[in-house]
Automatic annotation (TrEMBL):
Entry-linked InterPro entries: HAD-like_hydrolase (IPR051400), HAD-like_sf (IPR036412), HAD-SF_hydro_IA (IPR006439), HAD_2 (IPR041492), HAD_sf (IPR023214)
Domain of life: Archaea
Keyword Hydrolase: yes
Matching PANTHER family: N-ACYLNEURAMINATE-9-PHOSPHATASE
This protein's name: HAD-superfamily hydrolase, subfamily IA, variant 1
Keyword Hydrolase attributed: yes
Family in the record: Belongs to the HAD-like hydrolase superfamily.
Coiled-coil segments: none
Organism: Halorhabdus utahensis (strain DSM 12940 / JCM 11049 / AX-2)
Length: 215
């Protein structure tokens, strides 16, 4: 079957999530300072990036400062509502531009605020279909997001490639559907290995430009 569509994950596949996290953490620190008068910007960045507390970060911070845990939701909102510009990886736009000349392009992300991320990155116009799973009450742990993007692109699974970085969630369902899966090994999960054979991608690449050679 001839490949007709290429679909991508977003975070750490097309841009460095660290930049999004840094901007979000600063926005959350701004929000906390506005609510309490307490300045925690450097402490919050240190908590996340140096201490590696990336889950429950705001709970930890508020606990350390003996602040009401009800502030967590407000800080989470501030994190995801940050609107400072983001930059894709240097090779992202050249690769998307080249691929758009011969393939339909899709994107599937589990990240909250995926549409806003695309606007901040300035790359929304490259995609013929975008699925942000929280908006459809699903996730890449299920087949629905992949089926939906294939339907929107009007291609069969065996005529589509899916490119992602996270072996925990990115490959099992597209493998099951019959998509060709490609792992970009970089970002937060570059050292993780698939836990099951079903989650092993068909191909691995070290950088996005190598995708052009595969296709």
């Amino acid at each position: 079957m001839t490949i007709r569509a290429v679909c991508f994950d977003l975070d750490d596949t097309l841009f460095a999530y660290r930049k999004y996290a840094r901007a979000g953490l600063r926005a959350a620190a701004d929000r906390l300072e506005a609510r309490t008068g307490e300045e925690v910007h450097e402490e919050l960045l240190r908590l996340y990036f140096t201490e590696g507390i990336t889950d429950g970060t705001f709970d930890q911070l508020l606990d350390r400062h003996d602040r009401n845990s009800k502030l967590v939701d407000d800080l989470v909102d501030a994190y995801h509502d940050a609107n400072t510009p983001l930059s894709p990886y240097p090779e992202t736009e050249p690769v998307l531009s080249t691929l758009s000349e011969g393939y339909r392009l899709g994107l599937i992300t589990d990240g909250r605020g995926g549409h806003a991320k695309l606007r901040r990155l300035g790359i929304r116009s490259y995609f013929d279909a975008v699925v942000v799973t929280p908006t459809i009450e699903s996730s890449k742990r299920e087949s629905e997001p992949f089926e939906r993007v294939l339907s929107t692109l009007s291609v069969s699974a065996d005529a589509a490639v899916y490119v992602g970085d996270d072996p925990r969630f990115d490959f099992e369902n597209p493998n099951h559907l019959g998509m060709t899966t490609v792992r970009l090994r970089r970002g937060r999960y570059s050292d993780l290995e698939p836990k099951t054979d079903a989650a092993v991608p068909d191909r691995e690449i070290p950088h996005l430009e190598a995708l052009l050679d595969i296709l």
